Amino acid sequence: MGLQEFIAMGKHGFYVWWSYGVTFLSIALLFVLFAWYKKQLINKVKSFKRESAPKARSIKTEQISD
Amino acid sequence: MANSSKSFWRWFHQLGSPKWFYQKSAKWLPWLWAITAILFVFGLYFSLYASPVDYQQGNSVRIMYIHVPAAVLSMVGYLAMAVCAVIGLVWKMKMSFMAMRAIAPIGAVFTFICLFTGSMWGIPTWGTWWEWDARMTSELVLLFLYLGFIALHSSFSDRNKADRSAAILAIVGAINVPIIYGSVKWWNTLHQAYSVTKKGAIDPQMQTPLFIMIGAFYLLFVILVIVRLRLEVINRETKSKWLQEELA
Question: pTM for the complete prediction?
Fold first, then answer.
């Protein structure tokens, strides 16, 4: 069986390849979506860390000035 | 026996700890990926090339090797979501609501794949891409249930309320799963009846690759859930020190 024949799949190449293509593309999209979400979440954790760190310091300085 | 049940409960309790899951799952993923990749290499080789052509359907039968696994996982995924919902509501286990939420988008995508490949298979085989047949209609309802779950969960700003309301939808919607499964038996419409596990109904040369592909899809589903669940742990444990150290 040649490559041409393999791709043609009789008369059904169109249906078979669209099915397999959309299947793996949509699963790949899920992974892309998760990677993008992970980036956002890591930023959220980092900004939370940044926000909570200076606050602790300012409380300390206030106590000292008193 | 007593020992094994003891270790099962210990495992169950550990699974309830976001920290334990987050640290352990990082070690599981490479193994799961390796097994999944091997299954897909064999599965795709057989399903696209080495398996026989159907005497009536020709090459379009190759769509079966992704259509059936996607259909199986769309239903199993919903049931898993409903079980997580029950565990979350009854035992208030933190991780189960997280898992419930992690499954929803993945289940929705697998349901979409099932419907899309079914349509693509239907054009050359049935002469139509859609029919309001019992199996297809109930599978479409499943897609709406998944999407409804996601929409409902994201419509609350209070996470506890979101978890509980969406959990109830997940449980009530689970009634649709046996309907999908039984639809081909109860209503005599277009979609074919059971054949995958029925003896003699499907040639072993097609059945074996189909089972390999079902295994591959199962593992891929598990990987996706683990990846999404790890994100949910980050989302909900933002303030935990262990997580900040983990991500540092």
Answer: 0.90
